[in-house]
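step 4 of 6: structure.
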Amino acid sequence: MEILVRYGEIGLKSDIIRRNLEEILRKNIIKLLKKYDIDADVYILHRRLLVNVNTKDKEDEAIDLLRKVAGIVSYSPGYSCPLDIDEIINTAIQVMKKKMKDLGKEKIKFAVKTKRSNKQFPFNSVEVNKKVGEAIVEKFNLDVDLDNPDITLGIEILRDRAFIFTDKFEGIGGLPVGSQGRVLCLISDGIDSPVAAFLMAKRGCRLVLLHLKITEEALNKVRKIVEVLSDYDTELEFVVYDYKKDLEEIYKKLKEIKKESYTCIFCKKKMLKIAEKYAKYMECDAIVTGDCLGQVASQTLKNLRVISQGINYLILRPLIAFDKNETTELAKKIGTYDIAIEKEIKCPYLPKFPKTLSKIEEVEKIMKKANIS
Amino acid sequence: MEILVRYGEIGLKSDIIRRNLEEILRKNIIKLLKKYDIDADVYILHRRLLVNVNTKDKEDEAIDLLRKVAGIVSYSPGYSCPLDIDEIINTAIQVMKKKMKDLGKEKIKFAVKTKRSNKQFPFNSVEVNKKVGEAIVEKFNLDVDLDNPDITLGIEILRDRAFIFTDKFEGIGGLPVGSQGRVLCLISDGIDSPVAAFLMAKRGCRLVLLHLKITEEALNKVRKIVEVLSDYDTELEFVVYDYKKDLEEIYKKLKEIKKESYTCIFCKKKMLKIAEKYAKYMECDAIVTGDCLGQVASQTLKNLRVISQGINYLILRPLIAFDKNETTELAKKIGTYDIAIEKEIKCPYLPKFPKTLSKIEEVEKIMKKANIS
């Protein structure tokens, strides 16, 4: 079996950039399959990639894994053959036979849909549909039904080969990981930040995940989340910083001047400060957070502004305009949701009434008074 | 006719915040309908809103417009009645009669689905389904089909009234505009920036749209886009700044030192500088851009970083991790796509080979050399 891989935005790029992105995508597919001990050859065809899975007992697993490779818009398991109408017909009959066997039905309705990217091929799409359709009708005595078929036999006429398939799976889209630089993602055990990191990987960024550790319990959840994310970026880096002492100090200082309601704000400012250092050190071009506007009381514009103040680094917030249910849906889709909700770990320093509408001047005053850097 | 409005995230908030958001949503519905000369009363019910359209010849238009109100997750035209089982049955028969007439069919299959938020009501959901279903069978001699009905009659048992309907329309979700502060959105005649502005309105922000004018043609497109967006935020403000002279100066200065390839970078830096001034002046807490990673060659992480450098303001980029087709789909849905693509206006200062991977140090050097502030 082979798998035909289709990309989306890569195809909109100039030739040079496209070839570069195709090559990164090719390598990323090999790397992810290799992680699961699946050996595969991947060829770049005419605006498609062809995956040849050599580990025969893991073909289904390989199909599943392609769902996690950024840059892939859709993909189809099937068989390729030389650009010859008889070869195409023969391969189509084999593919059809296999699919009928899988379905366990003998009396099915089918349709043939040909896409001819290679206009040099002597038969056009309608002619290929007709020739292949007729051969299948003759061979299996089936009915054609273009509107509501049980099986749609797809044929792609590419530059050097044809490809025949019956299924089309959806990929995550985006751009190949590693094509768009490195980002430092702040990652917690919650629902949002893993989704934010995933979205940046989807757009082609290499991930450096930084967890600011407060409790061992949360770290354990984060480890599992990182394991899931490492399928999307097989070369991600994971860094843990022991943050408890910093947060304790902030809390203590604020408590002394009776300003505990500002704990979350100063905590987040400190987090960004630490992230900034790591981003520089690990050569990342941006800091990524799971911030979302208005989701919880403290995620106000005013607080976001106060928190970012003084950070001289690009901060990206891919979830900023997401609804809670949109983030949750994505978390379920990528596989981090169940881990995030398995046990809610409350921050031990969460004030009773966190400040929701902080002001820059006020925060600067408190910073001085409490001697927080 | 009345319209029952359902919200999503608003329901997750504490009582005080929820009531405040409900009231903002109520006023926003009235304002949008009023803009189209539709008079309506809007009542806050038990975690629902009830819209009573008084302008009888504009009921369909009112139904259409609710699709544009941030905070609404779904809504249903129908009729309310007192919390009495006989009243519910009678109203259900009227609603059913109307729907059958609209469908133009007499022999249809139907189902009843009751949702009882008010647990005080003496009949539970199953009992209401049964009583109403039996009455309809008797009255119209129809068949019940729970799996594949032609009409699903919905009944919501609320605290003070019941509501009966057959259709459910999807809203845009999010939070009511005006509940999350003000943002300054840089807006151009392209596909992306109107979508970015829409997304911030969807999350409850009041919009100040700033267009940096280079050509009259582009401004005319932007005016039409602003008109579309003003349905999502009926109180948005629109500001035009004559930017041509600034850009000309940047181009001239860069040309003098043969660094025209940096035109886009310095242009965008200047745009953010101007946006920063306006954001302060117009009391916005953030600047919003349509930036998207890797969509065009100049939208690299490194360029985004260089461009943001020196801007001491919260910058939000809601599209940062969007695929091109995701942004395009949204643009079509909100109604700005057709305007954006009607005529492509190329920037007259676009260099042949725009710099894609700029460095902060290099840009600072050029800034000094070319005397650009």
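step 5 of 6: annotate
 - Chain B has a mean pLDDT of 94.
 - Chain B has two domains: 2-170, 182-370.
step 6 of 6: archive
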